[in-house]
Amino acid sequence: MMPRSSSVKRISRWNRKAVLLIVVGVLLIVPGWRIVGKARVLATLNNNFKFEMDDGFYHYVGADLNEIDAMVDDRGIRIYDYEGDIGRQHNPVTIAQFALSLVANRENEHAKSLLFKNLDFLIETAETTDDGNIVFPYHFDFPICDEKAPWYSGMAQGLAASAFLWGYRLSSDEKYLVSAKQAILAIQEKSYGFLKPLQHGCWVKEFPNYRLTVLDGSLAAIAGIYDLTRSLDDSDPDKASIQELLDRCVIGFKSNSQVFDSPQAGHYFDDAFTLPTPGYHRSNLAWLAYLATYDGDLHEIHKMYSASSNFFTNTVVAGKYYLDKTPEKLGLLNREARIR
């Protein structure tokens, strides 16, 4: 008969092996599920999404008229809930995007009223710069992108300009044209850090104090500059400098577009090589499709940034990304979802 102590030792050894196998299994299965999940997301990325167009100018897909009242405060101004310590805030980018989404619903009187309320709010709450232009302050700290209140976004400047120009076209009120021009001219003021000089051209920073560069912020700002150049008369004294700014920004993007290129997966969200969410993927390609009406070279970058729809290919991409990066970057990050 085997001694009891030997039997206990054998069971103990098997327990340790079982625990080890479970741990190894979990370490393999959890990344595996995350890789498969990310591959499924990558396979659904829409390469064909485009913004809506009227009279050659873009606007967002129409807002759901049944939901717009839930998106605004008691004054009718778009408000965004960041939750946590930040809470509900007025965000200039989100307000401009909301206005651009209401353009499609402009035949609806309530939607049209909200559109002009939000444009007027941006003007009324803007700060005047030393050069007499306007910037749109964020009155809350945004640690995720290294910004402290008050801070300002190059993306907000461009989106607001595009929204103001719709206000001008729909109302013929000169204040919207003037505000659009002031928003774009402010991008060139050095004290705000909107422009990052490059060897060729420049880059518009969505978050001037953020060490990383986010792709869609620059594309949206360039679109605002592009809209303004087409809206000004040739006799306007600022048109030449705004046209020059547009060309510098387009050259800057083209000369650095490879930084965001992600083979098979399309493109990266930022220059830290973060894979984008479906929403950011669609938006970036929509910006490129729109700006390609100005510079045809952007059609090729659009193709380069388009993602594979093949699940196997994306599994390989997601697996390599998991090995190259931290596991936290594999999923749909809160950082991406909350960056607006």
Walkthrough of the structure:
Helices cover 51% and strands 7% of the residues. The chain is mainly alpha-helical and 340 residues long. The protein has a domain at 44-51 and 127-309: Glycosyltransferase, CATH 1.50.10. The strands form 5 sheets. A two-stranded antiparallel sheet has the order 1-2. It is globular. The termini are far apart. 36% of the residues are buried. The model is unreliable at 23-28 and 327-338 (pLDDT under 50).
Q: How would you summarize what this structure contains?
A:
This protein has 340 residues and is mostly helical.
Enter the CATH topology name of the domain at 44-51 and 127-309: Glycosyltransferase
Number of helices: 11
Spatial order of the strands forming the largest sheet: 1-2
Question: Could you state the order of secondary-structure elements as H and E?
Answer: HEEEEHHEEHHEEHHEEHHHH
Nearest-integer average pLDDT: 87
Q: If you compute it from the alpha carbons, what radius of gyration comes out, rounded to the nearest whole angstrom? A: 24 Å
Q: What is the C-level CATH assignment of the domain at 44-51 and 127-309?
A: Mainly Alpha
**Distance linking N and C termini:** 72 Å
| CATH 2nd-level architecture of the domain at 44-51 and 127-309 | Alpha/alpha barrel
Q: In one word, what is the shape?
A: globular
Please outline the major beta sheet.
Answer: 2 strands, antiparallel
Helix residue percentage = 40-55%
